Amino acid sequence: MLLVTAGTRGDVEPFLALARAAAASGLDVRVAVPVNSGASVEGLNVVSLAADFSSMVRQQGASVLAAARSFRAIVRPAMRNVIVGAARTALAYRPDVIVAHPKVLSAPLIAAALDIPHVLVELAPTVTPTRAFPAAGTVTADLGSLNRSTYRAASLASALFVDALDEAAGLLGVTRSATPSPTSTLMPISPALLPRPDDWPSEVHMTGPWLHDEAAAAVDPDVAAFLAGGPFIYAGFGSMASGDPAARGRSLVLAARDRGLRLLVATGLGGIEVPARLRGDDVLTVGSVSHAQVLPHAVSAVHHGGIGTIQAAMRASTPSVVVPFMADQPFWGALLHRQGLAPAAIRPGQLTSTRVGRALDAATLHRPAVEGLSRQLGAEDGTAAALATIISYG
After folding, report:
1. SS3 assignment, position 94
2. Which residues form the Glycosyltransferase family 28 N-terminal domain (predicted)?
């Protein structure tokens, strides 16, 4: 089994959880990942793709405009390494199934060349059309009958990387037009959070999140001491790094202090910076933390709205304040608000201490709904469900 993903930490961790489950069940599994994702690959059979999406974010920030500006110099070379690197890895490994992120545009070519199943992994609904809602990353408003048309955006991506696809096809001995539809589509999303549309084909499986048990792992001593010190707010924007991180840090610290709460900040790739004059014993700043270890203890979580963080917060019964930056994040922020699971999302540029404070106050009112969803999520084993589906094609 070959798992291939591309992107930052949130794109990598679900694949690693699935790889660990596959290896634990005795399967021969290899996983190809970008370099420097920040996710632990210990104990896995890993191939590094020569693409550093985390460095890309640090250099240019995380926004559509930044990606457009650096497309020729940074984005296209990175994607070429993913597309061609995946083909080379598959030829060397000769898997009996490929499980791939949508960014791995050569996955259909690999499946055609090796005559194996291709399992597409949609971390957010961006590829499989539905009338129920627009594609994540396009618009948040319900467009009714036009919702299906928003899913064309994903299919247009291949046109931006024709040269890399031709190179991969040449290595594989197929033509670029050899792009069969996926055998199956897996979504590590709970249907309790996003109800499954009735117009999706039966080959689309919403499994629930793919998780690796981290709760029993050793907790950093500084983090452990902070968790034991009383109520706190968690704040982390993952791989988001655009805008003014110091201004965001100031707003978060002041909003927490106004409510007599402490603040645990995960700086990630630089999305939050706590100014020196605002630091104190009531603020702990770390690079990253295990959501499974931290979120169950938090009063609320202020985050970017990535689906991994959202489902982690929901599983922990921790209300969210979503600050969406880009891509699918506005989709999830709007969904939580519509379903009564969170206050209205706050745009990063509007993250004042007053707005954060009001959102934190409102978030506490959503706790009963969040706790109800938590019970449903806790009954799911998304990793096992995904693995069972993949094995069924073997």
Report:
1. coil
2. 2-114
